[in-house]
Specification:
By secondary structure, the chain is α+β, with helices and mostly antiparallel strands. Helices cover about 15% and strands about 30% of the residues. About 30% of the residues are buried.
Length: about 240
């Protein structure tokens, strides 16, 4: 799996993570059998992570993402460029988040590092976030960057706003899914053939209710154009 995007048969919750780089190889490129088992509308799809260098900067420090009761947007925003779609076919794009491991963490300020604090809490309700432009033709998805800027993270287990529910102090891997909208009468029989899943290790993050690593705070303020006000004010709330 080294250096490639892995395509999965099902939208499983298992943390089978790819080792992708800036530009993914064709979906299922690591297995001829997997490639042949997918519909031609998805078998050639490639996905490139936008703002790759920035994601790497955060990853080197240990990316943290704020979760709140009301829901908080991600920064960096998950954005991708897609190629290899059938321009005339319709696709649905969606995301979910899976646990990287079965551990709960705490931040050790004296060593500026994350330490295992015990077993993971009970899993939060599993949800999918559909891109609001879905469904759309491949030509539309491929002509511009696809941004999940409306996606919000929450720790409210009773959330009814459709936000992604995560447990604080747990580590997550975002996953991106491309689903071909099969117009055939028996499309449900081919559901396993009509999608492909992508993940980028540099987008992993720790869910937190407040930033623990001050270097993450500084990088977010320096990199986020919407954090302009925090650059000249007290960063305690940020």
């Amino acid at each position: 799996m080294e250096g490639r995007i892995k395509c999965k048969h099902v939208l499983s919750s298992e943390p089978q993570l790819s080792q992708s780089c800036k530009l993914s190889r064709p979906c299922c490129a690591d297995s001829r059998s997997l490639l042949s088992s997918k519909a031609p509308q998805v078998s050639g799809v490639r996905v490139q992570l936008e703002m790759h260098a920035l994601w790497q900067q955060f990853d080197r420090l240990g990316t943290e993402m704020i979760v709140t009761k009301a829901g908080r947007r991600m920064f960096p925003t998950f954005q991708v460029h897609i190629s290899g779609m059938d321009p005339a076919s319709e696709y649905v794009l969606l995301m979910d988040f899976i646990l990287v491991d079965d551990k709960r963490y705490r931040y050790a300020f004296h060593s500026s590092s994350w330490l295992v604090a015990g077993k993971a809490d009970a899993a939060a309700p599993s949800r999918m976030h559909f891109h609001p432009d879905s469904p759309a033709r491949g030509a539309q998805w491929m002509k511009q960057t696809v941004s999940f800027d409306t996606l919000k993270l929450t720790n409210n287990l009773l959330d009814d706003n459709g936000h992604m529910i995560l447990n604080s102090m747990h580590r997550y891997q975002p996953r991106f899914h491309v689903v071909y909208v099969d117009p055939g009468p028996n499309s449900h029989l081919n559901a396993h053939k009509n999608f492909c899943s992508f993940s980028f290790p540099e987008t992993r993050f720790m869910a937190v209710t407040a930033y623990q690593n001050h270097r993450i705070t500084q990088l977010k303020i320096a990199s986020n154009p919407f954090a302009k006000g925090f650059r000249t004010s007290d960063t305690q709330d940020w």
